[in-house]
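Subject: complex prediction, re-run

Hi both,

The earlier run crashed halfway through, so I resubmitted it with identical inputs.
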Amino acid sequence: MSGHTPAPQSAPGREVVPADADRLLPERFENPGLPVHHARMGDTDPKAAKRAERQVATLFGISALGTLITLVVYFAVKFDTPMSFAEYMTRLRISTEGLGMGLFLALFGIGAGAVHWAKTLMPDEERVEERHLLRGSDADRDAAVTILKEGAAESGLGRRPLIRNSLIGALVLVPLPAVVLLRDLGPLPGDDLSTTMWTAGTRILTDPQGRPIKPADMQIGSIVHIVPEGLDKVPDYLEQKAKAAAILLRLDPADLDPKSQPGAYEGIVAYSKICTHMGCPVALYEQQTHHLLCPCHQSTFDVTQDCKVIFGPAKRPLPQLAITVDADGYLVAKHGFTQAVGPSFWERG
Amino acid sequence: MSTTARVAEDVGNFLDERVGASKGVKFLFRKIFPDHWSFMLGEVALYSFIILLLTGVFLTFFYVPSVGRTTYDGVYTPLAGQTVSEAYASTLRLSFDVRGGMLMRQIHHWSALIFVAAITVHMFRVFFTGAFRKPRELNWVIGTILALLAIVEGFAGYSLPDDLLSGTGLRIASSIILAVPVVGSYLSFFTFGGQFPGEAFIPRLYTVHVLVLPGIFLALITAHLILLVVQKHTQYPGPGRTNQNVVGYPLYPVYTAKAGGFFFIVFGVTALMGALFTINPVWMYGSYDPSPVTAGSQPDWYMGWLDGAVRLTPGLFEFTALGFTFSFNIIIPAMIVPGLITMAMLFYPWIEQWATGDRREHHLLDRPRNAPTRTGLGVMSITFYLLLLISGGNDIIASQLHLSINDITNTLRLLGLVLPPVAFVVTKRICLGLQRKDREKVLHGRETGTIYRTETGEFFEVHAPMDDVSRWKLVGYEPIRPLEPLPAYDEHGVRRHGSRLDGLRRRISRFYFEDRVEPVTPAELDAAHEEHEALPAHEEEERGAVTASTSTPVGGD
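This time it finished cleanly. Structure:
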């Protein structure tokens, strides 16, 4: 026994009467049985019952009214005449709210009426049903075992191991076509996860305007979302953009990490915008601290430390895109990304 | 005979002679179901599912499961002329151009949220009352699978409009697949039909959302309900309720009206929510594009705990070895933690059964306080879950309260490790305290507020004894004691087979049942009464209660 069980109270200094052997108390309390049923108003007073009946009917009537409201709103709120956008939105709101509130009355009326009916007018005296053990009787179980054994014997599975083993073999093999048939769900990854559209000399365009950028367009502290030129011409636009999207920032060159200097141009640096954690666009830039924040899981990258992770669930820094200017003075990629962008995967290494 | 009666007879006869309907009526219609408000939670889940089917079918008439590019030219002019996907354009069309479409979409989305919420709270009820015990373990397993599939189905559903928010969610899903060791990139390419986002995924997801998962739901819900009828519903303990009976009202007509009516109430309230509260305004986010994103991205509430787990796991868990990347910063929160939670849920009934050594059927529910360790474990799990859910909104908390996101995240990391065990201990202690309070009440009666003063100047309050019916609620449970150790060696000094496992089993059993408060026995009550009688002025009040069992003394325990 544990110390948490209070011992029965004993009264010190009181004379204990010896126990009467014939009148031992039971070990545990006994179930007192169902409490007395109390009649409701409606059970005894016909007027109360009549009142409840009227209440139920009123609720059903409210439901019918709700149905009517729904139908009226559907046909009365018109969208087919020319109108301003604001007017259209107002009518849409009236239609949605009107239809919905009508439906609410139509459905809730039926529900509330039925429940009220059951609670006030249907019998509320509790009834008792016996439970039976779920397991079958011993005779039933014996009979079932006999049937199973007989069937197994009739099939001869035990006596003919050749049939049994060949059946097991066939059943093991038969799902293979299902697996093979799924092969064409998609192509193999190849190097798709490691390559982007950026190559040496790819011109940098703003996203979504699609303008080329000259270094003079970039103020210190500015940030531009960029994509490679030609992105809008490729058939797999979204797939390419999902890898190639990047950001262009200009900092005081003195603030940049020496590691990012070779790929920078007069303090302008480009980094992949795809989070190395789960691929969300790292789009929130804190100009004062030079931090880039991913809005999905709050990984924070420090641009002045070559986009190293300084907080959050990401591990790897955002890959840098080395940039330079072309003959026309526009910013271009010096070469493609030197490592896979975006979230980690097994063979990334 | 009236016309109605004649028609009823004809219909009944027709059905009986063809499908033997009379047997079904006899078996089912007068079945007794117990009544309690908490039994309604599962009903809410069931009815939400029906609402989802009805509104979902309406949505399929207008939704186009394709990411083919199209130029939006519908009535929502802020997006006019934009290149969007067919899925997105059709979602806008069914919201803005189809009369009642907006309402249907919003009812569908609201009832999806209610569906998962109702399942969750229903599971809490089943867990804390011990309704999962034998013979209902299988229904607990089915329910757990349904709960997990409901989350998947919800995620699939809100990903279909192909808007910016849901597309970002899909990108996260693809990154989780990529993080699977060895085969991640292959799995991702097979799932998405190539590189993310690809054109294959939305149509595939549509099939999963409207055919595969609803089919599985229908099958599992049917099994869930059949088992409910076969095993009969559990009931709360109380006077007249035993493990061998079921006390309540018949299915027909009482529950036909109550439960049937309740379906309409749930539907009505969901319709009202769909009418009045905007949900998932995809037109504000735009069509999916991998580059932009909105600050404060939040999934639907039931995904929040997974998102929170991902947010809390620091990046240092990722490492490279032998030229391969091990992304444990994703594997732990997105695979290992949910996997362990799922396993713990699926196997819980057998874990507890092992600790009690109890193989009997249980049809009477436990009051949560009478199972302190189980209740503690449940609150511990809920605490952990809620902390993860809160973590899923750490950015919202930071921006709303102007706090540092780093401080919040670090605090939540710490709390995630510390608070659940604390919640366990505190809950268990509260349960034991409540049990002691019950004992006090049974032994000494209810405080009446009437104060007496004796001639000697002593004050005392009169306690009214409890009647049989209200006392039964407090004493009518079974004390469970830890399993007694079996000797590890038999009489020949040979180590008994399985004795090592026995040690573990006894430790678990002690963990569950060592701290306990046992219900008052008649002998204890009797002793308490005698003690009261020793006080002179008390006599009057106590006489009534002890007449049935006067002055039988008790010699210790």
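Chain B touches chain A through 147 residues (CB under 8 Å).

- K.
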